[in-house]
Design a protein that fits this description.
Elements (H helix, E strand, L loop, with lengths): L2 E5 H6 L3 H7 L3 E5 L13 H8 L5 H12 L2 H13 L4 E6 L8 H13 L3 E4 L20
Parallel strand pairs: 1-3, 1-4, 2-3
Helix pairs in contact: 4-6, 5-6
C-alpha cells in the first residue's frame, strides 16, 4: 500500500471522499488542514496567507513547513500514517489544487523519506484502470 495526495475539489468532482476511498481499496483519508483534527501537520495559517500574497517564497514556505512538522507531534503523526500505509492506502487531502506548491506533497514526501513508505503521487486524470464495476471511469487507482 502507499500514500496518495489530492485536493478537495478532486474529491468533490468524483463523488466525495467515501467514493474515492472505495476506489483506492483499503484507504485512510486525512484532511491535512487546520481544524480537521490534523493541526500537527497543517501549515501555519500566517505562512499560507503570506505565500498567497507573495511575501513568502515557495522555498521559504518549504523550510517553514518542514520545520513545523519536524517536532515530536508531527513526527508521531507521520509515523502513524506510515504504519497505516502498511495495511491500506493513505490519502492526504487539502484545498490547494496545485500539488507542486502544496504542503500535502511535502508531507507525503517526508513520510516516504523518513519511514520508507511509497508515495505514489497526486490523484489525477486521466485514469489508468477501470472502476469497481468493471466499466471505464474517469479514475481508479487500485
Amino acid at each position: 500500500m502507499a500514500i496518495w495526495t489530492t485536493y478537495l475539489g478532486f474529491l468533490n468532482k468524483h463523488g466525495g471522499a467515501d467514493k474515492v476511498a472505495m476506489k483506492l481499496g483499503s484507504c485512510f483519508v486525512y484532511y491535512v488542514m487546520r481544524n480537521r483534527g490534523n493541526d500537527d501537520v497543517a501549515p501555519y495559517m500566517e505562512t499560507v496567507q503570506a505565500a498567497k500574497k507573495g511575501v513568502v517564497s515557495w522555498d521559504d514556505y518549504k523550510i517553514i513547513y518542514l520545520r513545523k512538522i519536524d517536532c515530536p507531534n508531527g513526527i508521531e503523526w507521520m509515523e502513524k500514517r506510515a504504519q497505516e500505509a502498511k495495511v491500506g492506502n493513505i490519502l492526504l487531502v487539502c484545498y490547494e489544487k496545485d500539488s507542486a506548491h502544496c504542503h500535502r506533497r511535502l508531507l507525503a514526501e517526508e513520510i516516504a523519506k523518513r519511514f520508507g513508505v511509497e508515495y505514489k503521487g497526486e490523484l489525477e486524470e486521466p485514469a489508468h484502470i477501470y472502476s469497481l464495476d468493471g466499466k471505464p471511469d474517469k479514475f481508479d487507482y487500485q
